[in-house]
Design a protein that fits this description.
Layout: E1 2-8, H1 10-13, E2 22-28, H2 32-36, E3 43-46, E4 61-67, H3 68-77, H4 80-86, E5 93-96, H5 98-105, H6 107-110, H7 117-129, H8 133-153, H9 163-170, E6 176-182, E7 188-194, E8 197-200, H10 205-228, H11 234-253, H12 263-270, H13 276-296, H14 305-323
Parallel strand pairs: 2-4
Antiparallel strand pairs: 1-2, 1-5, 3-4, 6-7, 7-8
Helix pairs in contact: 3-4, 7-11, 7-13, 8-10, 10-13, 11-12, 11-13
Length: about 325
């Protein structure tokens, strides 16, 4: 039983063009037999088979269907795909019923600080597309130091053997720091972080150098892109800006509006009508703003897990009860 079928992607955001394909997301309740046999398909995809590297065209229709339990699990995790669907409105719905109305009425139980996947996405995009001068300088400093170490001592010594050099490197630099990660067995491993690329102190200086070299070269490449506007993934940039803005809206107002109020600006980015440098700087700013909004939000720490579980039990239980005429 389908409880919601909604437009998704650019048609939901208001950034669709004449060449945009059509995306739908749906939520369903599995039939009673599959519920009892524990063989629920949590995600079903319908799309046209395509050749390798072939892109969708305006005639293509892609649909993904989530089971109710999978959808609510994604909401619980704070995944952006589920939150977009959660805040979709009736003008985008092709089909919905009273069960969806009940979910929409209880949105306040489902959103929380766990929506931090927004923060992770924004950080990723800021690192991927940002060309902030201090980040470029940090990658250059780390590259030059590790290059000197490799030339003098070879590639095999451990990164931890040069900790004092790295401490000096990290002084007063926001993009070079140390982080400690705890393994599943409880062991703590210290890492060097350069522009959010992590390298354990147990790794060799050679492997660390290779990572930092790639970071440094990539930032140099982006700096050239900023001047020429060439070879830029404008669609990805528009998504980065949109998601950053949605995150701030959710943390501050506990709501997300679709289509996006600034869809015309997102469409300009998507079409590559704005300078790359201007857009990348906007992403940098949004990342800072998202982190600030996450700090001050009044959203609860976690969604109401008990309500979610009771809701799934109630709807799946009723599906089984109805299928067997009340005889179980």
């Amino acid at each position: 039983m389908i409880i919601l079928r909604s437009k998704f992607g650019s048609h939901l955001y208001g950034t669709n063009t004449a060449t945009s394909d059509t995306d739908y997301k749906s939520i369903y309740i599995p039939d009673a037999r599959n519920i009892l046999l524990q063989r629920i398909k949590t995600s079903i995809q319908h799309k046209r088979p395509k050749e390798e590297f072939e892109k969708n065209n305006a005639e293509d229709i892609d649909e993904e269907i989530y089971s109710l339990d999978k959808f609510l699990d994604l909401v619980y995790q704070g995944q952006t795909v589920a939150l977009d669907l959660l805040f979709s409105n009736s003008q985008n719905h092709l089909e919905s019923n009273h069960i969806w109305d009940e979910i929409a009425t209880n949105r306040h139980r489902l959103v929380s600080r766990r929506s931090e996947s927004f923060i992770g996405y924004c950080r990723q995009q800021a690192n991927k597309y940002g060309i902030k001068g201090s980040r470029v300088a940090a990658s250059r400093k780390a590259y030059e130091l590790l290059k000197d170490i490799v030339q003098m001592w070879g590639r095999t010594p451990k990164l931890r053997d040069f900790k004092m050099n790295l401490i000096s490197l990290a002084e007063d630099n926001e993009f070079i720091k140390f982080e400690t990660k705890v393994l599943d067995n409880g062991q703590e491993i210290e890492h060097l972080s350069v522009c959010d690329r992590l390298m354990p102190f147990t790794s060799s200086v050679g492997s660390a150098f290779d990572i930092v070299k790639r970071v440094f070269e990539e930032y140099g490449k982006r700096a050239l892109q900023a001047e020429s506007n060439e070879n830029v993934d404008w669609k990805a940039l528009s998504h980065a800006v949109r998601i950053g803005q949605q995150a701030i809206e959710l943390f501050d107002t506990h709501n997300i509006i679709f289509p996006r109020p600034n869809a015309h600006e997102l469409l300009k980015i998507k079409k590559g009508e704005l300078p790359y440098k201007e857009v990348s700087e906007l992403i940098e700013e949004l990342f800072v703003q998202v982190a600030d909004s996450a700090e001050r939000t009044t959203l609860p720490q976690n969604p109401d897990k008990e309500w979610i579980e009771n809701f799934i039990v109630d709807k799946y239980g009723l599906q089984v009860y109805d299928a067997f005429g009340g005889v179980c």
